[in-house]
Design brief:
Pfam families: HTH_3 (PF01381)
GO molecular function: DNA binding
Radius of gyration: 13 Å
Distance between the termini: 34 Å
CATH topology: 434 Repressor (Amino-terminal Domain)
Number of domains: 1
Largest sheet: 2 strands, antiparallel
Structural class: mainly alpha
Order of helices and strands: HHHEE
Protein name: HTH cro/C1-type domain-containing protein
CATH class: Mainly Alpha
Organism: termite gut metagenome
Length: 60
C-alpha cells in the first residue's frame, strides 16, 4: 500500500505518514489505531509485547 493510499484510508495526511515512517515524528495511539485499522492489522501487532510487563503497568 502506498503512503498516499494509507493516508487516505486512515484519514491522515500523506506527509504525516511519511514523517512517522522516517522517524521524524512521534505518533499517538489514536493514529496508530487509525493506521492499524486501515491496514486491517490488530493494534497489538504494532507493539512488541516482550518489551513490556503488562501485569505491573511498567516496561522492563
Amino acid at each position: 500500500m502506498s503512503q498516499k493510499d494509507l493516508a487516505y484510508t486512515a484519514d491522515l495526511d500523506r506527509s504525516y505518514i511519511a514523517s512517522v515512517e522516517s522517524g521524524c515524528r512521534n505518533i499517538s495511539i489514536v493514529n496508530i489505531e487509525k493506521i492499524a485499522n486501515a491496514l486491517n492489522v490488530p493494534l497489538k501487532d504494532f507493539f512488541n509485547a516482550t518489551e513490556f510487563d503488562f501485569t505491573s503497568g511498567s516496561g522492563k
